[in-house]
Design a protein that fits this description.
The chain is built from 18 helices and no strands. The protein has about 450 residues and is an all-alpha fold. The protein has a single domain, classed as Amino acid/polyamine transporter I (Up-down Bundle). Helix 1 packs parallel to helix 12 and helix 2 packs across helix 12. It binds 4-fluoro-L-phenylalanine (PFF). 4-fluoro-L-phenylalanine (PFF) binds next to helix 1, helix 2, helix 5, helix 10 and helix 14.
């Protein structure tokens, strides 16, 4: 076995895991999902999912990784052996690695959109832009596979070159620089939105809770998004946990990370919606919200071009630190089981994902009519398959494994919780989270059949 990396301290672990969690999910997906799912009702359900399902399962996933100190595949195998259970559990680790690869296949294409928008913003293109022009620009990008592939390739190179360097020189260093930079840019943006945007309208839209607006679909998407947003259910957090020292409190660190992730998503949402409402734009634009709607707002505001560059840089940093965590489980698996060098493994996996991303890039134009499952195109298939099925299912299995397969003394030993906290974790991990995920699956089956 080749040398395994380790985080220098608790702080670098927190930055890296927050880096994994904070990504396109917070800045691109959450704001548009809030818009599409009726605003505050969705926010409320999302927060509930983070607290009752996300936090306990993040603790579980970190705990599994740290106990085994191995990649997700070998970790599950070893923990199953330790619990005298079937080693088939290792396939849970394998499924997670696959999910990471599938996610990066589309994630890196959206990362590419973001890079292209940084380039476009620097040219002052948004100045006084009309709604139609902005929509046309976005359409033009989607309809130009060559441009999409170019930016997707650049994003893949950025991602893989960090992963190739390993835990300390790559992952740790990138996160140590990018995450503080990301928070600094966020603060500037928020200050800007407060001064020129309509914070009041944004606040009302997101936080005046109206329970009657909660729909089953909103609950379904909120739960799936809680998993996606916290990077749960696929081994990313598990492998990060496997590089963590024994003396760090899992509960405390998890709570900080989950709060940072959720707060950041909500603050970005406020910043975006206050600009959207100040410019009388519609909040429910869907995936085009930050690419189509926001530029109109930027184009009509003082210093808008500069702010646009800052904003898209923020999104790019966030996407980058998440993307590296999507491939780390698989790379760790190769490095720990074969003689293949990390750099070589990264190159081969990078090429495979790059090819997948090319298919995704084509799915917006040339391959628009190609459908994979349930009449969904390539991009939607990857997105829905991973965030509504694979991640919650992975989370469910991890909850079942820790709650019903592992030995209690091993759990306590690793989680190291006081009595009350342990009880709360047990109830949420063993009952609340599995029942919630199960209920959502039953509902999904009903929708499909
Ligand atoms: N949490 C990331 C985001 O919100 O953009 C996406 C993600 C990264 C999901 C890593 C899953 C994962 F393992």
């Amino acid at each position: 076995m080749q040398h395994r990396g380790a985080w220098k301290n608790r702080w670098t672990f927190m930055l890296a895991t927050a880096g994994s969690a904070i990504g396109l999910g917070n800045i691109w997906k959450l704001p548009y999902m809030i818009g599409v799912n009726g605003g505050s009702a969705f926010v409320l359900v999302f927060i509930a999912c983070i607290f009752f399902v996300g936090i306990p399962l993040m603790m579980t996933e970190i705990m599994l990784g740290r106990r085994a100190q191995k990649n997700p595949f070998n970790a599950m195998q070893q923990l199953a052996l330790e619990a005298n259970a079937s080693t088939y559990w290792k396939y849970l680790g394998a499924a997670g690695m696959l999910a990471g690869v599938l996610i990066l296949g589309f994630y890196s294409v959206i990362g590419g959109w973001v890079l292209s928008y940084i380039a476009v913003s620097t040219q002052g293109t948004f100045h006084n832009i009309s709604a139609t022009q902005s929509a046309q620009n976005f359409e033009a990008l989607l309809n130009s596979p060559i441009t999409l592939i170019f930016w997707h390739s650049l994003f893949m190179v950025m991602t893989m070159s960090v992963v190739a360097r390993g835990v300390s020189a790559g992952l740790e260093k990138a996160n140590n620089i990018l995450i503080p930079a990301l928070f600094a840019i966020l603060l500037i943006l928020l200050g800007y939105s407060m001064s020129v945007g309509d914070m009041h309208a944004a606040y009302q839209f997101m936080f005046t809770f109206d329970f009657t607006k909660i729909t089953p679909v909103a609950v379904l998407s909120a739960l799936g998004h809680a998993f996606f947003s916290l990077s749960l259910g696929m081994g990313a957090v598990m492998v990060y946990g496997s590089y963590l020292q024994r003396n760090v409190s899992i509960a405390k660190t998890t709570i900080y990370i989950a709060i940072a992730d959720t707060m950041l998503g909500l603050l970005v949402g406020l910043a975006i919606y206050s600009l959207v409402f100040a410019n009388h734009l519609a909040p429910n634009a869907g995936p085009g919200l930050i690419f189509q709607t926001l530029p109109i707002a930027f184009g009509h505001m003082p210093g808008g071009s500069f702010i646009a560059v800052l904003f898209f840089t923020l999104v790019a940093f966030a996407a980058w630190t998440s993307a590296i965590s999507l491939v780390e489980p698989t790379i760790a698996w190769v490095v720990e089981n074969t003689q293949v060098k990390r750099t070589h493994a990264t190159l081969v996996l990078g090429i495979a994902i790059w090819l997948l991303g090319i298919a995704v890039s084509l799915s917006f134009s040339t391959w628009k009519t190609v459908t994979i499952i349930f009449g969904l195109g390539i991009f939607d298939t990857l997105d829905k398959l991973t965030s509504t099925i694979m991640l919650p299912l992975g989370g469910l299995m991890m909850a079942i494994f820790s709650g019903y397969v592992m030995k209690k003394n091993h759990l306590q030993d690793e989680l190291n919780l006081k009595r009350k906290a342990y009880q709360i974790w047990t109830v949420t991990n063993n009952y609340v989270a599995p029942i919630a995920i199960f209920a959502v699956f039953i509902y999904l089956l009903g929708l499909v059949s």
